[in-house]
Amino acid sequence: MAKSDLTEQLVDAESAIKELENENKKTTSQNEILGSNLKENEKLLAIKVEMTKKLEKDLLELKSQIIREQKNAEDARIKLAEANLRAEAFVALREENKGLKKKLELSLGEIAEFDKKAAVAEARLETYKLKKAR
Asked: In the chain, where does DSSP find H-type helix?
């Protein structure tokens, strides 16, 4: 091989080395950027993991609260149903009481009438006894 061929190959090799060095610098720079991006993404991921844990905790608390509210609502429905039954019973008792009151008033009226008749009968008996005793 001739010296010119070797010189040409050396120039080509040096040129290739410079291109590879430039490519290596670019790759190193890109790797540094990717490493920095990876660290940022890892930080963001950690933040999102914490947020997810908090949201899951909040969700569990909300589910518990919903269960408590549903139980309270069911208890309230039961109490309302009981109150409605008592109200219906009260109305029925009030009507029954009105009927009993009317019967009592009639009975009291009959008793007063019987008392009058008894008083009249006693008066007649006394009059009869007085007449007989004379």
From this structure: 3-133
